[in-house]
Every structure is written in structure tokens, then in C-alpha cells.
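Lecture 7, part B: from sequences to assemblies.

Below are the input chains for today's worked example.
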Amino acid sequence: MDLYAPIKDVVTNFKLITDFKSISDFSLKENSFFPIKEHFFAKNETILTFDKKNLSDKPPKNKAKAFFGLRKCDLNAIKKQDLVFLSKDKDGYYEARRKNTYLMGCHCKKVCNQYCFCGSMNLEDFYDLMYYDKGNKFLIEAGSEKGLKLIKKYKKYFKKTNEKIKQEDKIIKNASRLERKDLNRFYEDSRWNNLVDLCLSCAACTNLCPTCYCFEFHDKVKISNLSQGSRTRGWSSCQLKSFSKVAGEFVFRNKREERFKHRIYHQLQYFKEKYGTDLCVGCGRCILACPTRIDFVKLINEMK
Amino acid sequence: MMKIYTPKKTKIKSIRRDSHDTVILTLNYSLKHEPGQFVQVSLPGIGEAPISISSYGEKYLELSIREVGNVTRTLGKLKKGNFVWVRGPYGNGYPMKMLEGNNILIIGGGCGVAPLKGIIEYLEKNRKKYRDIILFLGYRSPEEILYKKELAKWKSKHIVNLTVDKASGDSCYTGNVGFVTQIVENYSMDNQNKIVFICGPPIMMKGSIDILKRKGFNEDQIFISAERLMYCGIGKCCHCMIHGKFTCQDGPVFRYDAISGFKND
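Predicted structure of the full complex, as C-alpha cells:
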């Protein structure tokens, strides 16, 4: 099993731990710059290979992976992507990557940065194990059968305790920045345009989002043998014009405002209509990573 | 489990060219489907494209291909006996059963006539369950009229209003000239017991709907077939989303009142 944990280099990111020395090597004070979604919803996934006569669709080879130090937002993001790829019409490629994983969370005592708003997003407990930092020790809670099994298997690293994880331990302070409201009422609000004028359509927001799951297919052929090749599934971004372009070069969401608004509505409205829960988990990465720092939370809060 | 994006190899039974940029492919592919549904057609190495089914029946599958992109342009070059890869059918078709007992108006523009042809074939198989069938078909020029072979048959059975946007002097075409919206406008009718199916370029669909509304039609009497970019066909890739509705699953056929409030999307 491979272990991944947050390591600070220039930014904090989940890295494969090959030489574990101490937990203090892990960067647990801030959230990772990139979410871990690429481990399950791969940036580039070969879904078909073909030659002149045949097509084959073998699943990806998958090694068991354990992640340590995941935040509540990112854990919930995995749950949302599970809804898309593991419910109706199961996506075998996602499933093959997802099934052998262990999710170990690390609870945030306070917000990771000024843009977090996970407290507004009705996040749930979703993890195999959750670690609560108590200074000189971690209190650990199992959230699944898989988590319990892990504890049993590695008994020597855990100690039984009578200490309880209290409700107040689960609170993340000052994280309810987004005022929830019925966004359908504000679709035509002119204030969308004021802020969105700053949007550069760079797609950093969708690439860093732990939940964004839009994708596209691309066929590639071998230069040495043009009848051999593969079809890959890659991430795509609704912030780019090509996202809604049909034959004859017609683009349905031609304006930046329309594309920006589409992302927000998909996250906070459309997904709920289909799956009964928000897509957004309030990690704030799309604001933190935006080159012009468009804070849609502030924008929505101003709409009354 | 892997199979959701995996197409099936299918032989081309026949291929016929109907205009300079449109071919009609008939595939040896038995597929239970509803009129208005579509399939994803693949050419490995080139790509995949959603194509509406323009036939109705389980013995073969007919697809009308307008050569506008990489996949469709290559499809246009194929020959009888070549292979294509197909998966589907996908989407919600026209709710034909629910609409029995009505007069059926069909308004089609260009290759938008393709899915409507599936309805016409369905109606012919279930002729007694419906009243009059009135077709309004528009093409850019006489040379671009599709389904000429079928058109003669349709004219003998239904009320057919055919028009072309422009006809050059040297063509032997003697029919209507003008937009299809114009012949809908000029056609005297009320909205009693009528259901309308529209498919065509966005501007033509919009124009037709405006005219029908002026004639007293309600939005719930009108069904349109939407076109969007899509990859998966099963509500995952999100490219075809219209205000949270998936063209591939909730559509491509929408009753107009379900999406009429949506702007710019």
C-alpha cells in the first residue's frame, strides 16, 4: 500500500511517502494546493485502446493507496464524485481507482485560509479514519468498516482510550462565510457582471476544484501505426469557450459571464437538483487560485 | 462495468448521398429505440459524435450525417461494408404514446429533419392512433433537400409543405421559396388538438415557436429537439447541460415549457 500525505515544498501537496520519519514532516496547518481528485478521476485516463479490427476497454491497474491528512471539505468532495461515478451507470475506470483506497482525515480546528466556507455547505462525516489533533496526541475516530479493519491490522500504532470526541471538537470555527439563499432568484441579477468582468477564463478554478468532474474524450493514434491508438478521458473546463461549442462553430455559452455563472450554478444549484446535495464543499480553492481573486461568496452575500 | 463508454462494432449496410454535405448511413444494427433518441457514433482514432436516429424500426439503424466535423466528414467518406462503432440509444425521445389522438405538426429545418423522419416513420406504423400529419420542411436550396426518395411517399400520405431558402434560376425546382417559418406563418390553423415537433437551427426553432405562440399555441403543445456538445451521453461529462438539465438524459427532446425560461445557455 502506498501512503500519501501533505508535504510542504513551495506549496503543500499530497506526495507519496517513501521514507517516513515523523508526523511533524507533514504539513497539517494548511490545506493542500491541489485536491487529490486526480488519484480517482484521473487527469488522463485511457478508456479504450484499439487497432484496425478491435477495441478493448481494460480497467486501469490499481495499487492500494492510503491518504493521510485530508480535510473535511476534500473528504466530502470525494463523496460527491462517488455520487456521479459510482451511482447509476457506474464508471468502471473511476471505480477501479477508488475502491482500494483508505481515506484518513485530519480535522481542521479553524479555517485553513480566509476564503474557506465549508461551514456553510452542510458537510457530512465521511472518512475511514478521522484524526483530531489534541496537542501531544491524536484522538481517532473510525467512520467505516474499512477504517476499523485498518486499526485492527495496525493495532500497535493505536492505543485504546475512554476519551470521547465531543461535538465541539467537530466544529470548524468561522467557516460559515457563505449566506445560503435560493440562487434561482438571482440568475438575472446584474451584479454578476460587475465582478465577473475580472474573469480571465483561465480555468484555474475548475482545475483546482476538488469536485469539478466535467470531462471530454480524445482519440490519439500512434504515429508509427495510424490504425493503433487509444481514447482517453481528460478533465475539461466549463470556463473555456470550447466547452459548449457544437458543429458549425456555434458556442452556447459565448460570454465569460455566462460561463462563470454556469460554474457557480452547477456547484450550488444544478447538482442539488439532480443529486439532492450541493456539489461545492467550500474549500475556497477557486477563490484562492483565481489570478484576480474573484470572490463569488462575497458576491452572493451582497445579493439581496 | 467498463462498458459504459465502449461502443459496438457495426457494419454499414448501405450509404447514400442526399446532398453535397449530407449522407444517409444504414447500419446492420438492431436496436430498440424511441423516435428522437440518439446514438454515439465512433471512428476509433478520429473521435465520437452524437447522431440522432432518423429511422424507426428494429431491423436496421439509419443515421443522417451532415459533414461538419472530423468524425462526420470521415463518416461521409465510408463505403458499404466498412465498420463504424456505435453505443446507445440515449436520451428521451418524443412521448408518442402520450400524444395519441392529436393532429401532428412537424417543422424541420435542414438536417434537423433527421430525428423528425423517425417520428414520421413511427406515425406511419401507428397511423390510426393519430389524426392529420402536417409537415413543414425547409432546406437551404433545392440541391440540399434531403430524403427526396421518401418525400414523394410522404406527399401522397400527408400534408407536406416544402420550401427552400433560395432557388437559383437554373434549377428545375418549382416549389415554395422562403424560410420555413414563413410557410408556418402563412398556414391557416388554430391550436386545437395539435402537437408540434420542431427541430432545426436555433434561430429557426425560435422563429417557429414565436409564430406558433402568436397563433395561439401553448408552450406545452410544442416539443423541440436540442443540440449540444456531448461526450458521455449518460449525464456525467456535463457538456450538454442547459440550466442543470442534461440534453443527453433529460432531452434531447424537451417539451418547450420545461426550458422556455432559460436564457443564453
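Note for the exam: The domain at 97-225 of chain B is CATH 3.40.50.80 (Rossmann fold). Keep this in mind when comparing with the next example.
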